[in-house]
Amino acid sequence: ILEWISSHIKKYTALERDAFTIAIVGKPNVGKSSLVNCLVGEKRVLVSQMAGTTVDTVDVELDYEGKRYVLLDTAGLRRAANRVDDIEIISAFKSRDAISRADLVLLVVDGVEGPSNQDTKILEQIIDEHKTVLLVANKTDLGEEKMPDFRAWFQTQSEKVFHYYTDIPTVFVSALYGQGIGDMFEAIEDLKVKMNFRVSTSKLNDFFMSAIRGAPSPVFGTENVKFYYLTQTHQVPPSFIAFANHPEGV
């Protein structure tokens, strides 16, 4: 069934070709659909206290301050052990597909609970797809009611849970009250610029050589690994390739 779904999904619709596509992902019941409804100003997607009520991916067009976006509201991604039927499997498959279709991914987290190990699994999927990610702490209104130092606490929790990505960009919002939405779009636009960052080969290799001189050379077999140069690819977000005499030794 997964092969059939894969063959029938259109990865790029006519709507997405001239709009910036944003996938909204996260665990069930963290407020993804509420966030979409807040952004479009109407109840376009189902919101329920019951976790997992969104099964399919819902594409929503949005104009915000003269800029055009497509929002991909996805089903909550559960742990594999909790997928007990075909609907759960299809839901997770479509969420992964939404990540692959997106230009940028919003990883929505329950701000009161803070990031969890399950969120790290979702972040790993996003990174595996080479996608830009923005961490969205939802339910900030509740968090600030319970903890006066809520934002500092959340950042500390984020650094612990996402210890391999401690500088992940983060915004604080309340989908219920529309709090922090402007900050979220400022962060999105900032990331759009960074996604298309280009650097000249000469500047890149000046940096590369200074970095190499600051660390001991690795050894492969009986030889030192020698780095030659670094080049930027045409991928988005920015990616780079380093050339060396023994890349398998790096």
Output the structural class.
alpha/beta
The ordered H/E elements are HEHEEHEHEHHEHHEEEE
Number of helices: 8
Radius of gyration: 20 Å
Segments where pLDDT lies below 50 for 5+ residues? 8-16, 45-55, 79-91
Helix % is 25-40%
Number of strands: 10
Q: What percentage of amino acids are in beta strands?
A: 15-25%
How far apart lie the N and C ends?
A: 40 Å
Q: Choose one word for the global shape.
A: globular
Going across the biggest sheet, name each strand in turn. Answer: 2-3-1-4-5-6
Put the structure in a nutshell.
This protein is α/β, with parallel strands linked by helices.
Provide tags for this entry.
alpha/beta, 8 helices, six-stranded mixed sheet, two-stranded antiparallel ribbon
Topology at a glance:
Blueprint: H1 2-8, E1 20-26, H2 32-40, E2 58-64, E3 67-73, H3 86-101, E4 104-110, H4 117-128, E5 132-138, H5 140-146, H6 150-161, E6 170-172, H7 181-195, H8 201-213, E7 219-220, E8 223-224, E9 227-232, E10 240-244
Question: What would you note in describing this structure?
Answer:
The protein has 250 residues and is α/β, with parallel strands linked by helices. The protein is built from 8 helices and 10 strands. The two termini are 40 Å apart.
